[in-house]
Amino acid sequence: MGARKMSPPKNKNVREVMLAAVPSLRAFAISLCGNVDRADDLVQEALLRALANLDSFQPGTNMSAWLFTILRNLFRSEYRKRRREVEDVDGSYAEQLTTLPEQTSRLEIDEFREALKLLPPEQREALILVGASGFSYEEAAQICECAVGTIKSRVNRARSRLADILSIEDASDFGPDRETRAVVNVSGSRRS
Amino acid sequence: MNKSKPSRRRTAVDLQGSEPNPVTRLGSDIKAKIGQQLRLMYGEVVNQGVPDRFVEILRGLDEPTDGGAKNEPS
């Protein structure tokens, strides 16, 4: 039984770390391409590429950031190829996700996601990496292959733009009436 | 990289004017609210866990590496 055991124990570790990164990787991929099926294909491709290039991973560095970098690069090369398709995401996204228990959260999230789509891709990814994936500015800069200052600026612009789109001004603005107004604003800003 | 698209900007009657650089104006309330929404949205996917197909892909790592993990990047 133990005779075939040739793989070094570190592989098990690698597997666990990679597995642990998958949910966040998927969430990031969905935010990039807006479509669950394509996002999952992207994650799969990224994992396969990571496995094939495990040698180039520097032990002791952030495995998660490494995977995100691979996925982002894959997405960008694909995105360049079929730019036209990327934004046809209405509906497909929300439909494929399970519904949240509370309607209000559901509404708010959908609305927020719509607003995110209006951001330039670089701003959106910067905001998500820092604000949702939990990366530091430095890690996000590494993933996006740009300066830390650039990431900071993109995150600030993204927040500012979102606040504008969603009409968030201050805490008093988060009343029950906000949904309706934000929806109006989002559709309004599209049309104008 | 400061491209302002007038077509996208709202008429902003309720926005205390449309100053060219609203970036510095965000309070911590707003940041917190946006952060919360972001994490909710993100968490919705994260909470789905790891779909089986990815477990399958990574299973190769447990086996002897000669052959199993040498997947083509396709």
Notable characteristics:
heterodimer, A: Rna Polymerase Sigma Factor, Chain: A, disordered N terminus, B: mainly alpha, 3 helices, disordered C terminus
Structure summary:
With 192 residues, chain A is mainly α. Helix content of chain A is 68%, strand content 0%.
Describe the protein's topology.
The complex is a heterodimer of chains A (192) and B (74).
Chain A: H1 10-33, H2 36-52, H3 63-81, H4 92-96, H5 103-117, H6 121-131, H7 137-144, H8 148-165, H9 178-191
Helix pairs in contact in A: 1-2, 1-3, 2-3, 3-7, 5-9, 6-8, 7-8
Chain B: H1 28-46, H2 52-59, H3 65-68
- Terminal Cα span of chain B: 35 Å
CATH architecture of the largest domain in chain A: Orthogonal Bundle
For the biggest sheet of chain A, the summary is: none
Biggest sheet character of chain B: none
Number of strands of chain B: 0
H/E element sequence of chain B: HHH
What's the count of strands of chain A?
Answer: 0
Contiguous low-pLDDT stretches of chain B (5 residues minimum) are 1-23, 67-72
> What distance lies between the first and last C-alpha atoms of chain A, to the nearest angstrom?
69 Å
Number of helices of chain A: 9
Structural class label of chain B: mainly alpha
Which oligomeric form is depicted?
A: heterodimer
- SSE order of chain A, one letter for each helix or strand: HHHHHHHHH
Fold-level CATH name of the largest domain in chain A: Arc Repressor Mutant, subunit A
Compute the CA-based radius of gyration of chain A. 19 Å
The portion of residues assigned to helices of chain B is 40-55%
Residue-averaged pLDDT of chain B, rounded? 68
Question: How big a fraction of the residues of chain A is strand?
Answer: under 5%
Classification by helices and strands of chain A:
mainly alpha
